[in-house]
Amino acid sequence: MADSALGHLNRAQYDSDAYNMIKWLFIAKPGQDPNDRTRISKVRDVFEKINANYRRETMANAGRNDVVIYCDDSRYKETGKRDRWGRPLYLDETTNQIVLYRKQVCHGNDEWYALAVTNNVQWENEDGTRRDLNTQIQICTWFLDYIKSPAFTTHDELLRSTIGRTVIKGAEKNWGFRGIDAFSLPDKVLLHEMTHGRAAWDRYYGEERVKGLADVRVPKVAGFPVLPLPAYGWQFARQLASFGKDVVGLHGWEFDAADHNADSLALFASACKLLDHTWSRRILQDGSIELIGV
Ligand SMILES: [Zn+2]
């Protein structure tokens, strides 16, 4: 997916489908030119870093620019202790950190279910100083069960499946599933999580070190009286591009702009991947998928 995205972004002249995707997901405001390469430079940079750092499978010890993908939560050991609000504390044996694991969004709440969670972990030394370790991506166990199930085939199946039905319903609320949201979902989720990794983005914003892209929240705008939810999925990514901060590229980049939003990049890359298929398909403005040339 990252390869496809770079392939389309690096063309001397964008093909019309890539042009539209840039316009819909990043450079969406009136008067802005989707062909302006400066504005898209941060998106390109993140895909290049993902390609450079995550391409090779590492068999030895993982370094600070590697990502380790966890499919279960066996690294969390109960400590028998609780924090002052009575929440159980766990020891992450790979990082030596005490964590509030049960609080993690994988477990869901009324508003939000995550499919995976990324953590740029650090080792805490005895003297309190910290050292960067590899990035962890935790695939949520419900999501893993779901993608392993025979029901996971098409968008329709996704909505009709009885596997983790209530959980899917929770996720649906966040996602508002359009065609492109369900396309190659496991790959897209992984790419989404990789953009949260330190190796994809690690820069200072003033004094603050910013590791990885964020789940940028959709700004509250007239006509969309929603709570400021993270811009997951096509519909919300489009709103973010239209009403969020301006996308300006690498210089003067903004936390709240579409090019700092993990899912905007994942959606762009999966759309590029679709274009590169033998039976290529394009994304339409409403996020649905159309076969090209039939
Ligand atoms: Zn995310």
Describe the protein in words:
This protein has 294 residues and is α+β, with helices and mostly antiparallel strands. It has one domain (2-57, 142-291). It has ten helices and ten strands. Strand 2 and strand 3 form a beta hairpin. Helix 1 (2-9) crosses helix 10, helix 2 runs antiparallel to helix 10 (262-276) and helix 8 (185-195) packs across helix 10 (262-276). The longest helix is centred in the C-terminal third of the chain and has 15 residues, at 262-276. The structure holds zinc ion. Residues 192, 196, 215, 262 line the site of zinc ion. InterPro entries: MetalloPept_cat_dom_sf (IPR024079). One of its GO terms (molecular function) is metallopeptidase activity.
Main beta sheet strand tally, sense and closure: 3 strands, mixed
Task: Tell me how many strands there are.
Answer: 10
Give the C-alpha Rg: 19 Å
User: What's the number of helices?
Assistant: 10
Measured distance between first and last alpha carbons: 24 Å
Which stretches are poorly predicted, pLDDT < 50 over at least 5 residues? 154-168
Proportion in helices: 25-40%
Structural class: alpha+beta
Task: Label this structure with key terms.
33% helix; 3-stranded mixed β-sheet; alpha+beta; binds zinc ion; 294 residues
Please summarize what this structure is.
This protein has 294 residues and is of the alpha+beta class.
List the helices and strands and how they pair.
Elements: H1 2-9, H2 16-25, H3 41-54, E1 67-70, E2 76-82, E3 88-92, E4 97-99, E5 116-124, E6 130-139, H4 141-148, H5 155-160, H6 165-175, H7 179-182, H8 185-195, E7 202-205, E8 208-211, H9 233-243, H10 262-276, E9 281-283, E10 289-291
Parallel strand pairs: 1-6
Antiparallel strand pairs: 2-3, 3-4, 5-6, 7-8, 9-10
The chain binds zinc ion.
Residues 192, 196, 215, 262 line the site of zinc ion.
